[in-house]
Amino acid sequence: MRIISANLNGVRSAANKGFFEWLAASEADVVCVQELKAHLSDMSDAMRSPTGYHGYFHTAEKKGYSGVGIYSRRQPDRVTEGLGIADIDAEGRYLRADFGPLSIISLYQPSGSSSDERQQVKFAFLERFMTHMRGLLAEGREIVVCGDWNIAHQPIDLKNWKGNQKNSGFLPEERAWLTELFGHGWVDVWRTRYPEEPGYTWWSNRGQAYAKDVGWRIDYQICTPGIAAKAHTGSIYKDVKFSDHAPLIIDYNGEL
Description:
There is one protein chain. This protein has helices spanning about 10-15, 20-25, 45-50, 85-90, 115-140, 170-185, 190-195, 225-230; strands spanning about 1-5, 30-35, 55-60, 70, 80, 95-100, 100-110, 140-150, 185-190, 200-205, 215, 220-225, 230-235, 250. By secondary structure, the protein is α+β, with helices and mostly antiparallel strands. It has a single domain, classed as 4-Layer Sandwich (Deoxyribonuclease I, Chain A), CATH 3.60.10. Helix 5 links the parallel strand 7 (about 100-110) and strand 8. The chain is globular and about 45 Å long. The termini are close together.
């Protein structure tokens, strides 16, 4: 079973750069996408229902902002849009698809880099989302949470860690939040499989960050232990640049 997580930084932009042609050849069973920056009415049929896939979406109320989606070869048994928290759901940040005993979630956590106000929004999100993640564990299901978490956990997860300790995405409070999350039993699949590989998935558009590989690892597949143990291979696709993020690909033993 192949699961891909990809922040598109605009589904229409990514489509113009060949994302859906790549998707068709990706052999993915499920693809979780974030930052659609589009309403369903803005998306073509090919974006909503790519050949071979069912498409599901949770968009933001604000046009051209946020939004998440899930493309799956198999039709889910159930799809849940949002967390049931009004201010979070207005930004289109959470979509869950259930397939038998497995749930796959597309998540786009807030960024706090634009202002102190947005950083406070991020902290408020994190506090409430931790409660939700504990609730997910209590369900007793196998769960894969894919997405742009907008936090680099350890120094290995970003190139210039020393200079970013006071910047959003690598703040001590954010890093401690992830440490707490993993302490509850959630598993960071990439770091568990590849303890020595940085695994950058995002590069600033400033300077020559991409060319120089001055990146951050902020896209994760975070799983319950059972499904995490079935992960056997991971990769980050960089042959074509669809957005400022690169798709994170994880292969798991078993079928969807």
